[in-house]
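Prompt: May I have another protein with tokenized structure?
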Amino acid sequence: MSQESRRTSQTGVVLRLGSTQTLAWASSYYLPALLAAPLAAELGLAVTQVFGAFTLALVISALVGPAAGRAIDRHGGRAVLRVTNLLFAAGLAALGLAQAGWQVWAAWCVIGVAMGSGLYDAAFATLVRLYPVSARNAITGITLIAGFASTVGWPLTQWGLDTFGWRGTCLGWAALHLVLGMPLHSLLPRGQLEEAPPVRAESAPSAPDSRVPTQANAGNGVALVLAAVFAIAWFTSTAMAAHLPLLLQAQGLSASTALGVAMLVGPAQVAGRLLEFGFLRRAHPLLSSRFATAGHPIGVALLALGGPLGAWLFAVMHGMGNGILTIAKGTLPLVVFGAAGYGERQGWLMAPARVSQAFAPLLFGLAMAHWGGHALWLTAGLGLLALALLQGLALHMARRSAAVAPTSPRPDAPA
């Protein structure tokens, strides 16, 4: 395949996966925010029960992730993602037809399996199997598109609730997985479209262009560091998504100002991804990851020092950092470990993050109950811990790189 035709093929794949990721996130992760209250009211449940079922779905997704990634490594993403459309459709249909609390829990269990095998990690693994050398830009591309999942999903869900009720909304999302998601996934290529890079013995990235992955014998310690960093990042992002308006009000902002500041996080995430796609695209992912991880603690400091203006700066720094980290969770393991076995490894690396994500709203809510607006210092401290872990990892990789080639500095060693 010529370089031009390969780029055209990759663009089509990115558009398809970006569209199906938007559908998957809108119909699962962003669904309870609007659906929980009317569902609970009709079935006589507490809203906390509905969110409890959603928490269970996130835990199940963490358990499913490694097996789904292994299946993508072996068979490609086309087959696996098509199955996830059936799972999403079945779970959403079961939710729309539920008549009792246990049926709601059962439906979310099915949706949890679909989330574990059909959200970003599965899409990233699909791209890495298709494009083991140039997957970084493709990963950025689908996050740019799917970054608007809440922007698209919440209005569609609200329109469905107003027009068809919560049951009809669930059935409508289920139908979209069959009539839109399934055909788009069926158009994905079957086999690898790039020649995989050779496995190397060195323990650090070795290509002059840091977008090119190579096998790194990094060991379990590096994997644990990355898993901890991603768990911290997803705890913070989920806690902010659940509590940010009330948290800002606890900082002294009015309700309307707090809502306006919270709404700025989404556009800031997209801005961060555009920054990654442009200015940072040739930087080592460890550099962009450290920059992104520092965003939330810096934002908290600006909020503490700057009053109302600091709140807007906080939203920008937190949102941009979170947007870049969404990409880094796919590209950093690719550069550190290489493309071989990427899907299964990604499932294990992200399992702690999914669990921390599941319990973040509850745990941070307890922190707010005890400390009020000062609870932000908890997530700021966690962000500094993640930054320290990444800095230690960068120094470790630089030392290993120097040990491989002690007489001349490597052009791609993490800065």
Q: What stands out?
A: Residues 285-337 form the longest helix (53 residues). The domain at 220-403 is CATH 1.20.1250.20 (Growth Hormone; Chain: A;). The chain has a mean pLDDT of 84. Residues 47 and 360 are 17 Å apart (CA to CA).
